C-alpha cells in the first residue's frame, strides 16, 4: 500500500512542479531550473531566466569632466537665475555643509533641503560651459525604466544623453535636448509620442524638457524607456509577451536598451532669457540633485541573480555558462555552440543550456554499483546542477553521502519510505522526518486534496 502512495506523491510533486512552471510570476523569468520527476526519474528542467530589475545607481562609478568643474574650489557665491540680487547660494568644497560633490546626485532623496552636485559658474562666457557626467558600471546592463535627471537649478538649454556599449570606448547619442532643436543641433523637434514601432530606434531631439525658469517646478529631464516599450507592449505594458517576442528576434532593439555607460553632456546652462547677463555670470551654472537609472544585469537569460562583489557586478551564471554576462560555455561544456537564452516560447522561454563536451552514459543505476573503473563517466553529483538534497554531501562527484534520515541518488527520499511500515507507521521513527520533508509532504498532501477537489469542481476554476 505504501509503494503506490510514494508513487502518487512523486507524481503529485511532478504535477505541482509542472503547474508552477506553467504559471510563473509573469514576465519575471526568475527561475533558471527546477527539479522534476519524469519517467526517467529525477531530472532538471531548464528555463530562460534573468535577474530582477533594480536601482542601478548603487553600483556605478561617476566621473565629472573637466575634473575641476565641481564648485567650491575656490569657494564661490551664486545668484538665483530668476533674481540676480538674490545671491545666497554658497559653495565651498572644504566645508561639508556647503560642498556639492558628485555623490550627491545619487544619495537618498526625500530630505529637505535636497542635496545636489553643482558646477562652477559660467565665468568664461562666451566660451561654452561644457561638463560631461559619466556613469560607468563596468558591466553590461539592460534598462527597464526611464532615466530621470532632476536639476536643482534651471534645466540646461542644451544637453545630450549618450550611451556606450563598450565600456566607454565609443559613444552613441540616446537623445538630444534643447530649447531650440533646429538652432542647437539642426534637428527637427520631436517627442517620444512621434515615434512608431518602425522608428523606435531613431534618435530624436526634444524641446520637452528644456523650458525656462517659468516652469521652475518642472525640474526633470527624461529619457523615456517605458514609452518606447509601450510601442510593443501597449500603453500600460499589459502585453509584455509582444515586447519580449520583439526583443528576442530583433538584436538592434535589444541593444538599444543595453548599456555599459551613460554620459550626460551639458552644453549650455539655463539662462532664462535670450540674452546672457554678462555682468552677473554667477547666475549661470548646472546643479543636479538626482539621477535615476533602473535596469538589470544583462546575463543573456542564463542567470537570475547578479552580485556586487569587489566593486563589480557579476551574473551568477547557470546553464553551464560563465563570464561576466554568461556569454560563453563553461570549460568542458562546449558540446554545442553557446547561445543566449530565449524569451520564447512564452512564458518559460528556452534556456539553451551548454552541454558537456562528451556525454557519458546517463547514470540511473544504484550508486553502490559504480566502481572506480567508470569514474570518468559517472558524474552523479556536483555543487551546481546535481546538488545532493536534504543535507547530503557530494563525494568526488561519485555519490551523495546522505544524512541518516534520507536515501536515494541525491538523498531525495526519506529513508522511512523504504522501511517496514513506511513513514506513517509507529516504527517509522518520525524523527527521521525532519521539519523540511515533513512540511513538504504536508504540502503535497494538501496539494493532493486541492487537486482532487479541483478535479471534482472544474467549473469553479
Ligand atoms: Ca541628492
Search tags:
alpha+beta; single chain; disordered N terminus; disordered C terminus; 461 residues; eight-stranded mixed β-sheet
Give the names of the bound compounds: calcium ion
Number of DSSP E strands: 24
Main β sheet profile: 8 strands, mixed
Q: Please tell me the overall pLDDT.
A: 81
Shape: elongated
Name the poorly predicted regions: 1-26, 360-377, 425-461
Number of helices: 6
Computed over alpha carbons, the radius of gyration is: 30 Å
Distance between the termini: 32 Å
Structural class: alpha+beta
Give the amount of beta strand, in percent: 15-25%
Helical content band: 10-25%
How would you spell out the order of helices and strands? HEEEEEEEEEEEHEEHHHEEEEEEEEEEEH
What does this structure look like?
A hairpin with a 7-residue loop joins strand 10 and strand 11 (172-178). This protein has helices spanning 2-22, 181-185, 225-233, 240-249, 251-256, 435-456; strands at residues 33-38, 41-46, 54-55, 61-65, 76-78, 89-91, 117-118, 131-143, 147-151, 158-164, 172-178, 205-206, 220-223, 258-268, 287-292, 294-297, 306-309, 312-315, 321-322, 328-329, 393-395, 399-401, 406-407, 413-414. It is of the alpha+beta class and 461 residues long. Strands 3, 4, 8, 10, 11, 12, 14 and 16 form an 8-stranded mixed beta sheet that branches. A 4-stranded antiparallel beta sheet has the order 7-15-9-13, with no helix packed on it. A two-stranded antiparallel sheet has the order 1-2. The two termini are 32 Å apart. The protein is 16% helix and 23% strand. It is elongated. Bound molecules: calcium ion. Calcium ion binds at residues 104-105, 107, 109, 114-116, 289-290.
Amino acid at each position: 500500500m505504501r509503494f503506490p502512495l510514494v508513487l502518487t506523491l512523486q507524481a503529485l510533486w511532478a504535477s505541482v512542479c509542472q503547474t508552477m512552471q506553467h504559471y510563473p510570476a509573469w514576465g519575471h523569468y526568475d527561475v533558471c531550473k527546477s527539479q522534476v520527476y519524469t519517467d526517467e526519474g529525477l531530472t532538471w528542467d531548464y528555463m530562460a531566466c534573468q535577474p530582477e530589475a533594480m536601482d542601478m545607481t548603487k553600483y556605478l562609478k561617476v566621473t565629472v569632466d573637466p575634473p575641476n568643474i565641481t564648485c567650491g574650489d575656490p569657494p564661490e557665491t551664486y545668484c538665483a537665475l530668476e533674481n540676480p540680487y538674490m545671491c545666497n547660494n554658497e559653495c565651498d568644497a572644504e566645508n561639508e555643509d556647503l560642498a556639492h560633490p558628485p555623490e550627491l546626485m545619487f544619495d537618498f532623496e526625500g530630505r529637505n533641503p535636497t542635496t545636489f552636485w553643482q558646477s562652477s559658474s559660467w565665468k568664461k562666457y562666451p566660451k561654452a560651459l561644457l561638463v560631461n557626467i559619466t556613469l560607468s558600471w563596468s558591466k553590461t546592463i539592460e534598462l527597464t525604466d526611464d532615466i530621470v535627471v532632476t536639476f536643482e537649478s534651471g534645466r540646461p538649454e542644451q544637453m545630450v544623453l549618450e550611451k556606450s556599449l563598450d565600456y566607454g570606448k565609443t559613444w552613441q547619442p540616446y537623445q538630444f535636448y534643447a530649447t531650440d532643436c533646429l538652432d542647437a543641433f539642426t534637428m527637427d523637434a520631436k517627442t517620444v509620442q512621434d515615434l512608431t514601432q518602425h522608428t523606435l530606434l531613431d534618435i530624436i531631439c526634444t524641446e520637452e524638457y528644456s523650458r525656462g525658469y517659468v516652469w521652475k517646478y518642472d525640474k526633470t529631464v527624461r529619457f523615456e524607456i517605458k514609452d518606447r516599450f509601450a510601442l510593443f507592449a501597449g500603453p500600460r505594458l499589459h502585453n509584455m509577451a509582444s515586447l519580449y517576442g520583439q526583443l528576442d528576434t530583433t538584436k538592434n532593439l535589444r541593444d538599444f536598451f543595453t548599456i555599459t555607460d551613460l554620459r550626460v553632456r551639458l552644453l549650455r546652462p539655463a539662462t532664462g532669457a535670450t540674452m546672457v547677463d554678462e555682468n552677473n555670470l554667477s547666475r549661470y551654472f548646472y546643479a543636479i540633485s538626482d539621477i535615476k537609472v533602473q535596469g538589470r544585469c544583462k546575463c543573456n537569460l542564463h542567470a537570475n541573480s547578479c552580485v556586487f562583489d569587489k566593486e563589480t557586478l557579476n551574473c551568477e551564471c547557470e546553464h553551464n555558462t560563465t563570464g561576466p554576462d554568461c556569454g560563453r560555455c563553461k570549460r568542458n561544456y562546449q558540446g554545442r555552440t553557446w547561445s543566449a537564452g530565449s524569451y520564447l516560447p512564452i512564458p518559460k522561454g528556452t534556456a539553451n543550456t551548454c552541454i558537456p563536451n562528451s556525454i557519458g552514459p546517463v547514470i540511473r543505476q544504484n550508486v553502490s554499483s559504480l566502481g572506480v573503473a567508470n569514474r570518468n563517466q559517472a558524474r552523479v553529483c556536483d555543487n551546481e546542477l546535481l546538488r545532493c538534497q536534504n543535507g547530503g554531501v557530494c563525494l568526488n562527484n561519485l555519490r551523495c553521502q546522505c544524512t541518516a534520515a534520507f536515501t536515494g541518488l541525491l538523498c531525495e527520499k526519506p529513508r522511512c519510505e523504504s522501511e517496514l511500515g513506511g513513514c506513517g507507521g509507529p516504527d517509522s521513527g518520525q524523527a527521521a522526518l525532519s521539519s523540511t520533508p515533513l512540511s513538504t509532504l504536508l504540502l503535497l498532501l494538501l496539494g493532493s486534496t486541492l487537486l482532487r477537489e479541483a478535479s471534482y469542481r472544474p467549473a469553479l476554476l
